[in-house]
Design a protein that fits this description.
single chain; alpha+beta; 6 helices; about 240 residues; 2 domains
């Protein structure tokens, strides 16, 4: 029995792992996603924070509030790539979100999103999906924070989650150089078009777990139990 269950559960695990981030028809989007990001200019002093024994200067530019549907993300730890060379431990993650018509599009599942080191990319083979998508309703957000609780909240995010971010659009740097500025409009593209947000509050207002992710966990459990059961069988010597 185990010889049949093990390869079947392993195959199901592979397929479900590949499709675990698909946005299915069971995705129930909250009406609050119809709200565009809110941005208000402020006059605020630059301030200093410290992460992993490194000091950073942060200059708030705008109050910012964003409701978004997470379509891609990339966590950072400052120990690789340009984050390492810049000494940037303040940037917790890049989180790519959509809102308004783009979030509610019937063709959202036909779009592929992925994060590079500093960018969010989108591609589709479907002309209908592309026609229904508004790039001005997508943003890649560099999330920065020195608060350990907020940093932990951010790293709990997954594809399909609906989130609320409040904080400041800000520029920041360390004692060596300026690291990053911020976009202040949703209508720009290319280099410098990402929003840099010093996060004061981060909330996952609705988690999303699709059927593939549930199947993945189930297949993994079955696979582990089957392997244990196989090796615990009585040893038999063929005559």
């Amino acid at each position: 029995m185990y010889k049949a269950i093990i390869p079947i559960s392993f195959l199901v695990l592979l397929v479900s792992f590949w499709k675990r981030n698909d946005l299915g028809e069971d995705l129930q989007r909250l009406n609050i996603l119809q709200q565009a990001p809110i941005q208000e200019a402020i006059i605020a002093d630059e301030f200093s924070v410290s992460v992993k024994d490194k000091n950073y200067n942060v200059k708030p530019l705008y109050e910012y509030e964003l409701y978004g549907l997470v379509v891609s993300y990339q966590f950072h730890d400052g120990n690789y790539g340009l984050h390492k060379s810049w000494g940037d431990h303040l940037n917790v993650a890049d989180i790519c979100v959509v809102w308004q018509d783009s979030a509610f599009s019937n063709y959202l599942a036909d779009l592929d999103f992925w994060n590079g080191q500093f960018t969010c990319n989108v591609y589709t083979y479907s002309n209908q999906a592309w026609a229904s998508f508004n790039m001005n309703q997508l943003s890649n957000n560099h999330l920065i924070s020195a608060d350990e609780f907020i940093r932990d909240q951010i790293t709990d995010v997954s594809i399909g989650d609906q989130i609320k971010i409040t904080g400041w659009l800000a520029s920041y740097g360390n004692e060596n150089h300026d690291i990053r500025g911020t976009s202040t409009t949703r209508e720009d593209t290319g280099n410098g078009a990402c929003e840099t947000i010093y996060v004061n509050d981060f909330e996952i207002i609705r988690h999303y777990t699709n059927v593939w992710k549930k199947l993945m966990y189930c297949a993994l459990l079955v696979l582990i139990i089957s392997i244990i059961g196989y090796f615990r069988q009585p040893f038999k010597i063929k005559q």
